[in-house]
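Re-run with default settings, no changes from the original entry. Doing this only to confirm the output is reproducible before filing.
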Amino acid sequence: MSKKYRVIISGVGGKMGRAILQGIINEPDIEIVGAVDIKLLGKDIGYLTGEDPRKITIRDNLDQVLKETKAQIMIDFTNPQAVMKNIRTALVNRVASVVGTTGLTPHDIEELNTLTERYRTPVFLAPNFALGAVLMMKFAQEASKYFPHVEIIEKHHDQKMDAPSGTAIKTLEMMAEGRKEIHQGAPHEFEKISGSRGGNFQGMRVHSVRLPGLVAHQEVIFGGEGQTLTIRHDSLSRESFVPGVLLAVRNVLQMKGVVYGLEKLLW
């Protein structure tokens, strides 16, 4: 068998971290060599997957785990407050990163561009690892060339910290590439409740819903003369993100610098 990818998962105790661990732990070309979280310290990762112990315990010192395991790749699904520190730590150790945590700012991306060049180590970022979501964004980009009036409704679980979602922002950015900025709605419309018309991105509106029971959902609604067009994607479980994460893990070591978006690996 060819050499395995040596992977650690940062944020392994969270819902996404557990789903990714469950989805990749038995892949023949991947070896989980470490697990990091501030929760469930000392627990074997087998506890998270319902399997026999793997002799890999959850620890909270990312730097130590990276050094001791000689990992090649860090998968990070933590939170916006922790993600930049984690990526910096991985880069200093010359460990490539596959990051699904959203909330990074343009300033953060600028810093990562500098750091990846300094350490000659890649970082792969994706706002959404579901293949269907990537296709939804691509289709929306194409439709926006013909339907300039568009609004996004994105829905996520109530523990998501950033709004709008990274997927919604990426969709807006893609549509803006081929669409002139226009004013949507009545020329003199006003809000009786502040924020009820949603966020404004170059004339396009985005609305964020946060409720328990949701996972990740987005619909892009276009309006035209006598018609509407809706492009929608629903992640019904976190298993939907595993194929995209696997695709990134198997390609990240060949990347250079910061690569943003799963579509870079699809077309």
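The chain has a mean pLDDT of 94. The two ends are 29 Å apart (CA to CA).
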